[in-house]
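---------- Forwarded message ----------

FYI, see the Protein DGCR6 record below. Original note from H. follows.
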Amino acid sequence: MERYTGAFEEAVDGARQQERHYQLLSALQSLVKELPSSFQQRLSYTMLSDLALALLDGTVFEIVQGLLEIQHLTEKSLYNQRLRLQNEHRVLRQALRQKHQEAQQACRPHNLPVLQAAQQRELEAVEYRIREEQRAMDQKIVLELDRKVADQQSTLEKAGVAGFYVTTNPQELTLQMNLLELIRKLQQRGCQVQPAKLVEDTARPKLCEAQRNKGTSVWPACGLCDSSVVSATTRAQQQPSPCSSVAYRGTSRYLPPPRFVTEAPPTGTPSGAPSWSCRLSHTTFPPG
């Protein structure tokens, strides 16, 4: 009897996984229709099916959320570094301006043209230094974010998410952004699964005496078992799914998930530096 019970439960598990895969695939196909036609052509049925398989147990949703939180911390740190640099430059300009004004007030009129020429050269040197420091900071930000992109690509590739591998190809990056956008929208819609144990405890059909004595009418139905695999699967689907606010708990801002973007590097990035930056979210850095 235990052998038959195990076989039945395995069949139910397989059917439930298949139904879950079908639901995720249908949801992905529906979301793909919202993308531009040029991107729809690249998201083939096979890729969407593989993506749905990777999303079955909910692990990928957690991975994406973890990457998002790490990225928020990284962007916040880089943002603060650039703000500090800008504050230093503002203080430097103010101090230089004050120094020049005091020097001009103490200068004799016939020496004023010479003093002003020297001050102009000093001002140009300081402005050049400021521009170079801002350019170096912008390059550092771009390179750091690009390294973060490579880490994200590698992590998702190891997790078995279709379409992800380490690349700098702009077309492939756009494809990966679209895939992440699909995952994010599924997460917002609550298309996640609960931990396996909860599903087993609440939705796994069990054999009762009514099934063990199939063909008799003396045993009342227990309400937990059902010979219909579809019914068991339906009950599993009716379990509450985490809402977006729960799925995004742990973040420090409690804001809706930001959109995935691809942006050009800051103006003045030296040649040879990466010319793209794809991230799970977007932070607008203050202008220099």
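H. also flagged this: The chain has ten helices and two strands.
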